[in-house]
Amino acid sequence: MPRLTSPPWGGTTLAGRWGKGSDPGALIGESWEVWHENPVAGGRTLGDHVALPLLVKLLDTREVLSVQVHPDDTTARSVLGARSGKAEGWVVLAAEPGARIAYGLERPLSAEELRAHAESGEIESDLRWIEVAVGDAIDVPPGTIHAIGAGLTLYEVQQPADLTWRLYDWGRGRELHLDHALLVAGRTPVRPTARPTRLGPGRTRLLEAPAFHVDRVEVPEVRRVEGVAALTVIEGELRVDGEPVGVGQSVVAWDATLGGAGVALVASAPGAHPANG
């Protein structure tokens, strides 16, 4: 069962186009599709069945998100005692004309400049904005200053750590985390490095990071997914081990047999395994 959230930037696409919740006009920013504490049948959680250190979400952005950065594993552990940092990646599912993301800075800044610009709002002109289109994949390593713009529906995969440190929030008045953010924020221009790689008929690697990978899988060209993986259907209707899975729905399966016709994004992580395996 997805967990739905309503941050101030959420839109109506997840409720309408993707069938999340009971009200097609609801403002939903995030649908948490797959995470360790996800409730499943019998009063148990997903983590009782599989070890899959991922969080998979669908996002809908009616407004721009905060300018933020995430820590790496080392910083997260040393500063907060967290189990991991937060690497993430996105696949664009829908984009209004001109939709864009902020990815890094236009020019190098000192730590003092970055703090001052975040406090004054001058950071708005420091950001490097990139237009995106349906099918684009964007990797967001820890330390990357970023913001998701308005008019986007995204698939997001990340390490399962709720560690977002805001540098700027467009005047919304929410808490900023400048001291923590400045510990990890990259202060020189960077560009996304994700490059789709065809792995075989019907299978393309969209994102690959040390903590996870995401493949675009076309069925019926691909009939099987090996190992433990989270599957999110983005076109058509599939059968995963005989169970129907429609557009916008996600399942976790291991050594899964696929049927039907459609496209899924398939995420996995090193060391993922059945809980009793």
How does this structure look, described?
- Strands 1-2-6-13-8-11 form a six-stranded antiparallel β-sheet, with no helix packed on it. A six-stranded antiparallel β-sheet has the order 15-16-17-20-18-19, with no helix packed on it. Strands 10-9-12 form a three-stranded antiparallel β-sheet.
- It is mainly beta and 277 residues long.
- 12% of the residues lie in helices and 44% in strands.
- The chain folds into two domains: 3-184, Jelly Rolls; 197-274, Sandwich (Jelly Rolls), CATH 2.60.120.
- The protein is built from five helices and 21 strands.
- The mean pLDDT is 96.
Give the key terms.
single chain; Jelly Rolls; 6-stranded antiparallel sheet; 2 domains; globular; mainly beta
How is the secondary structure organized here?
Blueprint: E1 3-5, H1 13-16, E2 30-34, E3 39-40, E4 44-45, E5 50-51, E6 55-61, E7 67-69, H2 73-80, E8 88-95, E9 100-105, H3 111-120, H4 123-126, E10 127-131, E11 137-140, E12 146-148, E13 152-158, E14 165-168, H5 178-184, E15 197-200, E16 203-209, E17 212-219, E18 224-240, E19 243-245, E20 250-268, E21 273-274
Question: What is this entry, summarized?
Answer:
The protein contains five helices and 21 strands. Helices cover 12% and strands 44% of the residues. The protein is globular and about 55 Å long.
